[in-house]
Amino acid sequence: MSEFAIEKESSEFKKGLQAGISIGIGYFPIALTFGLLAKTTGLSIYESVLMSMIVFAGASQYISLSLIAYGTGIFEIVLTTFIVNIRHFLMSTTLNEKCEDDTLGNKMVYSFGITDETFSVVATKEGTASTGFMYGVNLLAYSSWVIFTGVGHLIGASLPQTLQESMGIALYAMFVGLLVPSLKKSGKVVFLAALAAIFNSIFTLGGMMAQGWSIVASTILSAVLMEMIEMVKAKHWGVNDEK
Amino acid sequence: MKSEIVWMIIGMGLVTYIPRMLPFVLFKGKELPPFIQGVLKNVPYATLGALIFPAILLLQKDDIWYGIAGAAAAFAAAFLGANVIIVVLGSITVLALYSYFL
Fold first, then answer.
1. Contact (Cβ atoms closer than 8 angstroms) between residue B43 and residue A86
2. Is A86 in Cβ contact with B24 (below 8 Å)?
């Protein structure tokens, strides 16, 4: 019986690894660029790899680099990281419903690997997600992220200058690639993204706030404003166009 | 390693891990107030909007067309239904060509 359980667990793990391959490939240029940018920002290879190992959250790691370059304090960087990554809370809440029941210990380990990408893969999977599957997806994504951070730091600088420069778009292109599919489906998403983009442009270009705070403020402002509009709409006209 | 950077990394790691882990510990089918849930649902899209703009347009401070070209390439590829990998590699290629020819 226990042998059977172990066998099932290992095939679930393999399925997870397979599902994680696309993430592993997707992380390649982004982690490579992160390693390279971390080097240009003045982080050592150990610091860069350590950050990828401990934080494992692309957007916030990139932002921390630009904040370091701006000479921002540690507290502001950590707070910005918190605000940027608070979205994982909702993803974990969603996945908590989808994952098979298991020990709290297992859940506390694999929840470390929840990113935008692993979340998307697991959330769109049919049926429940087993613990083995979670470990598989996360391990592949994590390995790619950590290894290519180191590779980027080591050899990133030997790439041609124009290629290095053009890889600066990688992160933003990833964000665009993540945003647009939802953008196409829902006018609400268009409104939210546009609103936050406008707020952020005004705050930063107008010199009203440092970049880190501005992303925080624009996000919260837009998300709350949108929700209030939805609430008023639902109350007064009985309209609810959410999905 | 500079200890300042290491402390920063540990702090970043903690504040990233806690929101990832907490729902698994806190919720057993319990629900947050609907308003908060709604706001949280909005957060990813708003964050993405703020992360992309204006930064994508300012990739090269002295040449806004560089950023515009990159943004146009990324949005075009994504709207055509390309997956994230293609969007990333495609935009890099377009900008490499841009620098090469212009």
1. yes
2. no
B9 inside domain: no
Examine residue B72 and state whether it is found in any structural domain, yes or no.
yes
Q: Which residues contact A3 (CB under 8 A, 6 or more apart)?
A: none
Do A81 and B98 make contact, defined as CB atoms within 8 angstroms? no
Judge whether residue B30 has pLDDT over 90: no
Q: How far apart are CA B66 and CA B91, in angstroms?
A: 11
Instruction: Give the 3-state secondary structure of residue B28.
Output: coil
A232 exposed, middle or buried (CB, 10 Å; 0-12, 13-18, 19+)?
exposed
Percent of chain B at pLDDT > 90 equals: 57
- CA–CA separation, A184 and A199 (whole Å): 22
Number of separate domains in chain B: 1
8 Å CB contact of B95 and A166: yes
Q: Give the closest-approach CA distance of A156 to chain B in angstroms.
A: 15
Q: What percent of chain A has pLDDT over 90?
A: 44
Structural domain harbouring B83? 52-101
Tell me whether residue B74 is in a domain: yes
| Structural domain includes residue B12 | no
Round to whole Å and give the CA distance between B68 and B72. 6
Q: Is A22 exposed, middle or buried (0-12, 13-18, 19+ CB in 10 A)?
A: middle
Structural domain spans, chain A: 2-168, 186-243
Q: How far apart are the first and last CA of chain B?
A: 41
Q: How far B78 CA lies from chain A's nearest CA (Å)?
A: 5
Interface mutation vs chain A, best among B24, B30, B60, most A CBs within 10 Å: B24
- Report the 10 Å Cβ neighbour count for A70: 12
Chain B residues within 8 A of A56 when measuring between CB atoms = 16
Contact check, Cβ <8 Å, A176/B71: yes
* Rounded CA separation A32/A45 (Å): 12
CA A1 to chain centre: 39
CA A69 to chain B, closest CA, distance in angstroms equals 13
Residue A243, pLDDT score: 42
Average pLDDT, chain B: 89
